[in-house]
Design a protein that fits this description.
Elements: E1 2-11, H1 14-41, H2 46-59, H3 68-90, E2 108-112, E3 116-119, E4 122-125, E5 129-134, E6 143-153, E7 156-165, E8 176-181, E9 185-189, E10 194-196, H4 200-203, H5 205-217, H6 223-257, E11 260-264, H7 268-271, H8 278-284, H9 286-296, E12 298-302, E13 326-328, E14 335-337, H10 338-356, H11 358-361, H12 364-367, H13 372-379, E15 388-390
Parallel strand pairs: 8-11, 11-12
Antiparallel strand pairs: 1-5, 1-7, 2-6, 3-4, 4-5, 6-7, 8-9, 9-10, 12-15, 13-14
Helix pairs in contact: 1-3, 2-3, 5-6, 6-9, 10-13
């Protein structure tokens, strides 16, 4: 059984738009009341919060206009937040109390187990009605809806539908590939395929700066400032949508073509300390791409030591600065793109790890696409350090 989340755009009419906003307001009101009780009386169990919700409905009858299970999910959310703070305190972290949430920062409510159904291109939500929904790709027939989250982003509405899908796992390719992630080329794989980096944030930086200036010039609390902030959020939403679309398409392409993918275990937070490259590193979305790959196929993270420096043919060290984009080995006369050389080194490290950790991972015989002697030969001298293996669920 697979658990997958499908995201669809909602198109509510004016009346439904008002109901969705009122529902968010009811959830935010309930959330803040529960936070007030916790800050006053201390830790509250889930049952305590549900009893408090019942008393709150008696004192505030307008809350009955909302689906009961949806409001109970607010208590589940707060209970989880309390447990997270407890765990952080146990590990020595300094934490404060739960804070009240503002109107502009509470954008999601959840229908769990009941109160919804999908029919004829519309989503029915209890106490709200039938909302037009665009189902690009559709919902699998052999699936069961477990939960629906409704989210508001830049005054647009989306439904995140969690499904349990029955059926067999898709067949997995036996091919392996190493991928070097970068800035000029987002990805360069060991088969010689390079993918240019779209740099979506950099391409929309000019209109983003313009609207930021408009926001700063508007008087706080005015309607014009709210309009400028909405436009500012929509530009950020556009950047996010373009980035995720690119990463989803690329990760799906690699997941269909290869059964196991080797990536470097990059320390991204350390890399962004270089302020000349920080913006482009964050704009590239390496971590999101890695996360997408992990649930679509099998991913092995290898140590990044000297993948750019070492020659992929003879193993000799060829130091080079970041501006040098060509690898030239003076020992074996190998000349190729530095990212291509790094991708081959990543593949060789990964195959060496598979051989040396065969008893632990149990995947060397399953995923090997070459003769075992070649894999052993390629893995000599590589694979030092811990290995992280992630298989698609």
């Amino acid at each position: 059984m697979l658990i997958r989340t499908f995201k669809f755009r909602l198109y509510p009419d004016h009346n439904q738009h008002s109901k969705l906003n009122r529902t968010l307001g009811a959830c935010r009101y309930t959330y803040n009341k529960m936070v007030e009780k916790i800050n006053r009386e201390g830790f509250q169990s889930r049952n305590d919060l549900n009893y408090f919700l019942t008393d709150l409905k008696e004192s505030e009858p307008w809350l009955y206009e909302n689906h009961s299970k949806m409001l109970q999910m607010v208590s589940t959310q707060i209970y989880g937040a309390q447990r997270s703070l407890q765990e952080l305190r146990k590990t020595g972290h300094k934490t404060g109390n739960l804070k009240f949430v503002q109107y502009s920062k509470y954008d999601t409510f959840v229908y769990n187990q009941s109160g919804y159904h999908i029919r004829d291109g519309s989503l029915h939500l209890s106490k709200i009605g039938n909302i037009k929904m665009v189902q690009h790709g559709g919902i699998p027939q052999n699936s069961t809806i477990k939960q629906i989250s409704i989210t508001r982003k830049a005054n647009r509405w989306f439904a995140n539908i969690v499904l349990n899908i029955d059926g067999l796992l898709p067949t997995i390719s036996q091919k392996l590939v190493g991928i070097d992630l970068g800035i000029t080329n987002f990805a360069y794989d060991s088969d010689g395929c390079s993918i240019p980096n779209p740099l979506n944030y950099a391409n929309l930086l000019k209109p983003l700066k313009r609207v930021q200036r408009k926001v700063s010039r508007r008087r706080k609390g005015s309607q014009n400032r709210k309009k400028a902030i909405l436009w500012y959020r929509r530009i950020h939403q556009k950047i996010q949508n373009k980035r995720r679309d690119f990463l989803h398409k690329l990760s799906t392409q690699y997941a269909k073509r290869y059964g196991m993918i080797f990536l470097e275990r990059l320390q991204k937070l350390n890399m962004v300390s270089n302020h000349r490259l920080a913006q482009r590193i964050l704009d590239s979305g390496w971590g999101t791409f890695e996360r997408f790959l992990k649930y679509k196929t099998c991913v092995v993270l290898v140590a990044p030591n000297n993948t750019t420096v070492d020659c992929s043919r003879c193993g000799s060290a060829v130091p080079k600065v970041l501006g040098v984009r060509t690898h030239r080995c003076h020992v074996c006369s190998l000349v190729l793109d530095r990212d291509y050389n790094a991708a081959i080194n990543i593949l060789q490290k990964g195959m060496g790890i598979l051989v040396m950790h065969e008893s632990t991972a149990g995947t060397a015989g399953t995923y090997a696409c070459r003769d075992l002697a070649e894999v052993i030969e390629a893995g000599r001298g590589y694979g030092r350090g811990p290995v992280e293996v992630h298989q698609a669920s």
